[in-house]
Amino acid sequence: MAGLGTRFLPATKATPKEMLPVVDKPAIQYVVEEAAAAGMSDVLMVTGRNKRPLEDHFDRNWELEEALTRKGDADRLARVNAASELAAIHYVRQGDPKGLGHAVLCAAPHVGDEPFAVLLGDDLIDPRDPLLTTMADIQAQHGGSVVALMEVDPSQIHLYGCAAVQPTGRPGTVRVTDLVEKPEPGTAPSNLAVIGRYLLDPEIFTVLRTTEPGRGGEIQLTDALRHLARTPECGPVHGVVFTGRRYDTGDRADYLRATVRLAWERDDLGPEFRSWLREFINDPARQPLRPAA
């Protein structure tokens, strides 16, 4: 999570991109809620400079809690306390932003020899689609590592890590035989993109320690997973092909779409918001905004 969030400047000049609100919660809270819902009670955040607001958000705020208690505002008090009660949350700084593989390697002292999950803060998975639970089932059955995959338009696959796969006989599950980070146009082995959910065998740390910088001069997690997939004695790599609801908050347009979709479906906000949005879209007098002269 040590990225600079340059696509959201100037909003992210002093605010971590993970703290940008999606409706009324920061994006990172949705990710921690997903981990907690899958039974993961110990969370390590790999952070960088200017990420202190993440720690503050998941900590207690005694002054605010006391003020809400005095007002008798039990609803807001519960929402404030929810973030600090999700899991035991720890933090480690990445230091130099050397890529996702390096960020994962920073977690090695905390993780030890246990399988672990990696959840990227830019990807929000709808809680009605329990992707992590499905991935955990596959890992329990086959061992090794499991990655989340999603079909994308072939014209967009060069923006992602891409998997070559073989069928397993289980619908929605494939054996990963190779991985390529952001393949050159026309060279991708499939249209299955790796999205931001991984369940990893601790053997990944051994591989990452000897993985040379790859695309972009960074240590790529995709390159380490490629080694595991192509080395049978390291354990298999499987993929779960996700067809549910995913919200990419790392892109400005997708961030707006995620906010609209989640607000639309909220019981407390949805009815009024849906009514307003329909009127807004169908208003014949509405004209596109033009920049001021």
TrEMBL record:
Q: Which residues form the Nucleotidyl transferase domain?
A: 2-260
User: Per the UniProt record, which EC number(s) apply here?
Assistant: 2.7.7.9
Q: Any idea which GO molecular function terms this record carries?
A: UTP:glucose-1-phosphate uridylyltransferase activity
Recorded catalytic reaction(s): these are:
alpha-D-glucose 1-phosphate + UTP + H(+) = UDP-alpha-D-glucose + diphosphate
Its BP terms in the Gene Ontology are: UDP-alpha-D-glucose metabolic process
InterPro entries from the UniProt entry: GalU_uridylyltTrfase_bac/arc, NTP_transferase_dom, Nucleotide-diphossugar_trans
Top-level enzyme category: transferase
Keywords, sorted A to Z? Nucleotidyltransferase, Transferase
Asked if Nucleotidyltransferase is a keyword of the record, the answer is yes
Q: Which Gene3D superfamilies match?
A: Spore Coat Polysaccharide Biosynthesis Protein SpsA, Chain A (3.90.550.10)
**Entry annotated with the keyword Nucleotidyltransferase:** yes
Tell me the superkingdom of the source: Bacteria
The secretion signal range is: none
Q: What family does the database annotate?
A: Belongs to the UDPGP type 2 family.
Q: Name it.
A: UTP--glucose-1-phosphate uridylyltransferase
